[in-house]
Design brief:
Layout (H helix, E strand, L loop, with lengths): L3 E5 L3 E4 L4 H12 L4 E4 L10 H14 L7 E7 L6 H9 L3 E6 L19 H10 L2 E4 L13 H16 L5 E3 L5 H8 L5 E5 L8 H5 L16 H11 L6 E3 L8 H4 L14 H11 L6 H12 L8 E6 L9 E4 L2 E4 L9 E3 L1
Helix pairs in contact: 3-4
Bound molecules: N-carbamoyl-L-aspartate and zinc ion (ZN).
Length: about 350
């Protein structure tokens, strides 16, 4: 039986760090295990310009505890007013590694997102020219589309047409949650990747709703049926270079989750690597965890993989992870995978 596993240090290709007190509290949880992360720009107000991304990067680095290293890979929030020249400059300086597309209203803090895709065509064309990746929150927002169908409908109605209209545009389908997402990613040979979260490998929609409503399992895109979870597991553990880890770790303080209208987001930074080792072991794929967490992402973004390593250890007893991370704004609940996790990072 394998009791230790050494991997190149992983990266997180989709992460929410927030700002202020929550940033301060959650950043060490990621920096402890991950070398780099693609930082989501959905602050209030959003990170729209290169100057705002540079200021946010400085706030992140200022919040990093002494002795820890971490490289935030910044993104710009695409709006209908985004200036292609500002995007080019932020990319040329090395500051920005992706632009984030939120359909307006799709998720937390997405009111400034895109309604009319014709308005962002010049930015998308520029991105295709300069090789800058578009990270896509792939859900339609139409009130008449059932929330469980929104990803599949987005692929047909928005993603495929946008990709066809913008040859050469590099796209990451973020946090895919369906077999349709897996199949679409697999149908394209290059220039299209897909991130998968830790929690979507673990929970299906029953976990949110059976036996009581569980706000800490609610995120967007919402977890789907079991067959979709199984499709995500197969993709993540396959070693296929198109799939890589984006935890979508999305902290909200408990007061904003445990309420009549709770925020979407699962906070998984603390125990992601241990949970992933458990999942990959269940799938007899521990030897493919490095591809998913440490190799496929850098290859997509044309960055070198990290040179240092982490070692995961399997303990006889379940690891006691903290239930909550305290912040000056209140506690943030750590994702509970519903099973005991025996793996941790040493
Ligand atoms: C994210 C957040 O809280 O910012 N929430 C989530 O459920 N994933 C937004 C997002 O990535 O959709
Ligand atoms: Zn997210």
């Amino acid at each position: 039986m394998t009791n230790t596993l050494t991997l190149r240090r992983p990266d997180d290709w989709h992460l929410h760090l927030r700002d202020g007190a929550v940033l301060q509290a959650v950043l060490p949880e990621t920096a402890r295990h991950f070398a780099r992360a693609i930082i989501m720009p959905n602050l209030v107000p959003p990170v729209v310009t290169g100057a705002q991304a540079a200021a946010y990067r400085d706030r992140i680095m200022a919040a990093l505890p002494d002795g820890m290293t971490f490289e935030p890979l910044m993104t710009l929030y695409l709006t209908e007013d985004t200036d292609p020249d500002d995007v080019s400059a932020a990319h040329a300086s090395g500051l920005v590694k992706a632009v984030k597309l939120y359909p307006a209203g799709a998720t937390t803090n997405s009111a400034s997102g895109v309604r009319d895709f014709d308005k962002v065509r010049p930015v998308l064309e520029r991105m295709a020219e300069i090789g800058l990746t578009l990270c896509v929150h792939g859900e339609v927002t139409d009130a008449d589309i059932d929330i469980f169908d929104r990803e599949a409908v987005f692929i047909d109605r928005v993603l495929d047409p946008v990709r066809r209209a913008t040859p050469g545009l590099r796209v990451v389908m973020e946090h895919i949650t369906t077999s349709q997402g897996v199949e679409y990613a697999k149908s394209v040979d290059s220039g299209l990747g897909a991130t998968i979260t830790t929690h979507h490998l673990v929970i299906n929609r029953n976990h949110i709703l059976v036996g009581g409503i569980r706000p800490h399992y609610y995120c967007l895109p919402v977890a789907k049926r079991e067959e979709h979870r199984l499709a995500l597991r197969a993709a993540a553990t396959s070693g296929d270079a198109r799939f890589f880890l984006g935890t979508d770790s999305a902290p909200h303080v408990d007061a904003l989750k445990e309420t009549g209208c709770g925020c979407a987001g699962c906070f998984t930074a603390t125990n992601t690597m241990g949970i992933l080792a458990h999942v990959f072991e269940e799938e007899n794929a521990l030897d493919r965890l490095e591809a998913f967490a440490s190799l496929n992402g850098p290859a997509f973004y044309d960055l070198p993989p990290n040179t240092d390593v982490i070692t995961l250890t399997k303990n006889d007893h379940p690891v006691v992870y903290p239930e909550k991370i305290d912040s000056d704004d209140g506690p943030v609940t750590v994702f509970d995978p519903t099973f005991p996790v025996h793996w941790d990072v040493r």
